[in-house]
Amino acid sequence: MKIVPVVLAGGTGTRLWPLSRNALPKQFIALTSEFTLFQDTLLRTPPGADFHEPVIVTNDDYRFYAQRQAARLGLKPTIILEPARRDSAPALVAAAAYVARRYGPDTPVLALASDHVVLEPEKFREAVAVAADAAALGYIVTFGIAPDSPRTSYGYIKLGEPLGVAGAYAVDSFVEKPNAEAAQRYLDLGYLWNSGNFLFPAGLLMSEAAAFEPEIAANAAAAVELASEDIGFIRLDAAAFQAAPAKSIDFAVLEHTEKAAVVRGEFTWSDVGSWDAVQEIGATDGNGNVVKGAVVLQDCKDAHVRSDGPLVACIGLEGVSVVATDDAVLVMPSDRSQDVKGLVSALKKSNRPEADEHLTVHRPWGTYETVCRGDRFQVKKIVVEPAGVLSLQRHHHRAEHWIVVRGTAEVTLPERQFTVHENESIYIPMGQVHRLANPGRIPLELIEVQTGSYLGEDDIVRLEDAYHRV
Question: Which of 158, 176, 198, 399 has the fewest CB within 10 Å, making it most exposed?
Fold first, then answer.
């Protein structure tokens, strides 16, 4: 029976700041390859003989990231939207309910985090095949990873008796993140890391959730039953989903069920939950340095230096991490990476916009980047993807000057619609109703100069919007 991959892609990421921020979290960033972590996750389970098209669970903020990045791989996933964050249990039970309705309750579901790294996809798929055989016996199967060190940042699994499938075991117990002494003991006893990825028959997860968390089970199922379609997305019923208690699938089901099993994964895996984890899976030079981007090192050792913006040059660093973007730079001892979350909290308390947003802001139609800002003016680079359409809108406090530098712009005003080509420009007066679109096959790039007394993004009055934004 073909497996349905269910990818959870609604999480925010602050431990990898300044690269990962709430407005664009780590799963949608190319962290370790040319593809984003989300895309790499999808590529591990290609539709075909073994897998259906994926089901993605995310939220309003990230729905177009997920849709666009999947489309670039040639995929047409089902995208389910959570009305609120309720941790993994309600999301997975809702996904299981959807799969059961569409394909049947015996259909195997492969639940995957969208922000993990797996370096050997073939070995991963071999483990999935073993897990599918175990799940068919009536088990919820997790993937365990053989530890290479006594980590305190991962949960552990104690293996029980072998099952009737070679390579699969009953779970004796799950152990939460331990202290250093306990982690070493678990390592010596042969415990496995809990990767947080699972395979199970859709109906089994629903029945086990009903046994241990009836509120989650009932409300997640109702949220699917009452779901609505919204421009190609499946929107879970808000009232029902929000009534489900927020709880992880581990706490809600796996730590209680007698039907938990584990398969040992022989692939390299990381949840890349901090910068030191990124450093550990990176390729090193002769001095133990991990480098990515425009970086030059001199007399450095065991350094981790990454630039997604300006050139970064370092001299004499040892055991130090440097992460640079266009608008922020993080410098720290590499063994202090667990403190980044607290740093981001401090930035938020200081109302620093860099805590949550990048200079380049993503929208359903494309992106804009602030190039220059001054008193009563602002310059932006705007990129509109092919077929992208901005809302029909007006501004109370600013006028706009558009200069097309690549592609063709379709401009709609109340009295006419016309095109603006490369090296041409147009002026939009304050209060003028207007719309910008890209009718072409290549991205439309333009420079926008805003002038006026107030230039905030909240000075947009949307009259019509193709993406159903307010």
Answer: 176
Query: Where exactly does CATH 3.90.550.10 map onto the chain?
Result: 4-270
Judge whether 8 and 116 are in contact, CB under 8 Å: no
Dump pLDDT digits (tens) for 343-354.
999 999 999 999
Query: Which CA distances in Å does 355 have to 20, 84, 366, 426?
Result: 10, 21, 22, 35
Instruction: Let me know if 414 is exposed, middle or buried by CB neighbors in 10 A (0-12, 13-18, 19+).
Output: exposed
List of residues 6+ apart from 244 with CB closer than 8 A: 86, 89, 90, 93, 215, 216, 219, 220, 223
CATH of domain 4-270: 3.90.550.10
Indicate the pTM of the whole model: 0.91
CB 250 within 8 A of CB 213: no
CA angle centred on 381, ends 364 and 13, rounded to 5°: 50
With CA atoms as reference, report the closest residue to 52 among 132, 123, 127. 132
pLDDT digits (tens, 9 = 90+) for 280-317: 999 999 999 999 999 999 999 999 999 999 999 999 99
Topology given in CATH for the domain delimited by 360-464 = Jelly Rolls (2.60.120)
